[in-house]
User: What shape does this take?
Amino acid sequence: MKGFVLKCILYSLPVIGLHVIAAYCADGFTDAYYLRFTSLPQKHLIVGSSRAAQGLRPAFISQAMSEGETSFFNYAFSLVHSPYGETYKKSIEKKITPDLKDGSFIVSVDPWSISAKSEAPEDGSLFNEWRTELGKTERVNMSPNFEYLMENYPKGWFRMILRKLRPSPSIHELHSDGWLEIDLSMQPLDLIKREKRKFKDYRNNMTRLSPSELRTQGLIATIEMLDSMGDVYLVRLPVPEEMLTIEDEYMPHFDERMTEISERFSLPYYNMTLLPDTFRYVDGNHLYRSSGKSVSRLVGKFIQQEER
Amino acid sequence: MLFNSIDFAVFLPLVFVIYWMIERRGLRVQNGFLLLASYVFYGWWDWRFLSLILFSSLLDFSLGLRMAKTENRNLKKRLLVTSLLVNLGFLGFFKYYNFFLDNVQEAFTLFGSPLEMRGLDIILPVGISFYTFQTLSYTLDIYKGKLKPTKDLMGFLAFVSFFPQLVAGPIERASNLLPQFHRPRVFDRLKAEDGMRQMLWGFFKKIVIADNCALIVNEVYADVGGMEPYMLVLGALLFTFQIYCDFSGYSDIAIGCARLFGFDLMRNFAFPYFSRDIAEFWRRWHISLSTWFRDYLYIPLGGSRGGKWMKVRNTMIIFVVSGFWHGANWTFIIWGALNAIFFLPLLLSERNRANVGEIAAGRTLPSFREFRGILVTFILTNFAWIFFRAKSLGQAMEYLKGILSTSPSEYMLQAMSLAAEMRTEKFILFIGFLLIMEWWNREKQHGLEIAHRPPWVRRGLYFFIVLVTFTYGTFQEQQFIYFQF
Assistant: This one.
């Protein structure tokens, strides 16, 4: 029996060793979320959905603030992972430096991140984000993040070693500051196809989802928490005209509600949908990286003005 | 607790070490520990249903003792009927209540008198179809005088709940497994090593092949109407491998795991896709279930004795019931009926035992005749699996319509573009590896029974399989298909 156990251990050791090596190979190409759970606790965060994840580039926000000291970390995910609510709020809290008082937080808002399934938009027990990578990851500041990889990485870990040895093109790269870079063809035909599909999806969302007061309370609770730790800036990112039309139809009083919240907490609200739509989008929803640069600089300048 | 989970990876070594450490304390202690471990294993999923398995076990334990004490045939019968009613009653309620309700409502609606009946939100206890049949085999065998009841409650409870085979089989017969709880187990290194090999093979089948196939199959079945015909064909083909690798993979892990503890479970799959006809397929597929139905339903009904119509009747009953055992849906019933239709010509022409020997015995490759038989059987089972996988009869018919909606030349063109797309799907190559390994070891108990091969072959294969599993395996939570039964 001892011989058998020893043999098992001997065979297991290289397998376990390779897994540990693989974990160290995990990087921004592992998936669209992993790196966000490996940085140290942060003082300045960007939170929101995939619009913020792809549209707000921390490096250019800091650059525009021309202080060089405020470096943001993009902790925005997607409508599935990070609609406003208890799960996202808890995760954000874990991501922030303990006992922080002088943080800066960009809270990206849009009608979809305060919506829920039409069948029961006020039934929190039907909110599913607890099942996602964000909801399942308790430790959000560990590198390598073994917990995240064990719970969420759907493939064999040795792939990560393979990838390190033989890099291959990827349509996405998650940067160490949390910005998710997407690399899709911007050829007009491809773009039109993606836009059409996106607008169709969001038109379907108008019936599939409904505004949720519970989620709005989740947003307010998040803002309240962040407000106690520093300065909060509400931002509504720009979208193409057709998407804006859909959103105005879906939630006509969205801006009023956001203005109301911003006044309640005396925090600035930067509604970028009011800007001239000179930006480029990857799919009618998410900003293309060059436009993300411009938008990020505008947000940086806005924050700087507000700080004065 | 799933076999392919971190929880099990921690659970198994712990249980293994403690189990053999307490061997000296005697059988009772070992059985008690196995019982505890099995209840932890089962309760990990939902502790509330522990009471159900405990109740079933206690009931059949006491009924078995009572049956053996009496000489009165009628009383024996009544006790057996009690066991059947209670166990099948639980199974019927948890598995079939809503199905019957829906069909009754539909029938009334058809006759113009709609009936309003509310369905219940019932959670199907994992493994109920398996352990119910296992405990029933105990009372049935006692009734038939084939088995003496046990007075060892601990051993009996451990037999019913034995964790390697509790939730998805093999469905053990009391006459095979129960005595193993009553005799000391001795650690057998060679047995344990082969058990590990079998587990490795099972994990490979499940994680690399079944779960990768599932990703494509789920996509195809989620949008049957929107799929190209060649994708439907691919979906059907991949499901054939998914269900085999998922289920036989689980069985391999269960059997291999049991061997670590000194137990021998019955074989559940004997390379069924190498079958030369459908009768042989049913001697090689889910052997524990098909033999259970043969012994406890088919033979009592008269079996193959009697006239032609008796044979047809009994065959239809057994296949339809077997289909129905899988789930509360007409698709399973039709799947069972289809298999009966494929089987009957062989039975009626007395060719159902034409292929009982080993395939290509003493040869490397099958003969042309054998290969033709294998191909035809494969196509027939493939066809029937479409119904098994579909969520409704409508979807199954839509699926078939979709497959038949294009010309052969169009299929060729589509197949070529598919081949180009699929070349990046390495797991397809591993299906080839699976077939080669299982063909190579077709006369053995499992696909990786290679103890007799030179060390460099064995270690090379272990290295390759581990590498492939941890590189190309899918670790998304894909439950074993048969958990839902």
